[in-house]
């Protein structure tokens, strides 16, 4: 888990199931609008979660082009 207050628009985060989530914006009501993709997939899909729920799933920040192979290097 990362600190919910540290979540930033434009930043990407890796989840435990190897999805990359790119934050689009933090809404005034505390929800996070984001796009996500599987580790090797290129197509982004939309999503919205509560800021704390988003932080619970995030393991760490990663570059937007992260793939499982990039962790092996």
How does this model look, in words?
It is a single chain. This protein has helices at residues 51-57, 68-72, and strands at 12-15, 19-26, 31-38, 45-50, 58-62. It has 73 residues and is of the alpha+beta class. The chain has one domain. The mean pLDDT is 92.
Which descriptors apply to this entry?
5 strands, alpha+beta, 73 residues, 2 helices, five-stranded antiparallel sheet
Draw up the topology in text.
Elements: E1 12-15, E2 19-26, E3 31-38, E4 45-50, H1 51-57, E5 58-62, H2 68-72
Antiparallel strand pairs: 1-2, 1-5, 2-3, 3-4
Number of helices: 2
Largest sheet: 5 strands, antiparallel
Sequence of secondary-structure elements: EEEEHEH
Task: Estimate the mean pLDDT confidence.
Answer: 92
Helix content: 10-25%
User: What coarse outline follows from CA principal-axis ratios?
Assistant: globular
Concise summary:
This protein is of the alpha+beta class. The protein has helices at residues 51-57, 68-72, and strands at 12-15, 19-26, 31-38, 45-50, 58-62.
């Amino acid at each position: 888990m990362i600190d919910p207050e540290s979540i930033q628009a434009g930043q990407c985060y890796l989840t435990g199931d190897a999805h990359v989530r790119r934050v689009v914006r933090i809404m005034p009501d505390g929800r996070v609008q984001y796009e996500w993709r599987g580790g090797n997939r290129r197509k982004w899909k939309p999503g919205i979660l509560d800021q704390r729920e988003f932080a619970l799933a995030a393991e760490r920040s990663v570059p937007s082009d992260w793939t499982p192979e990039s962790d092996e290097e």
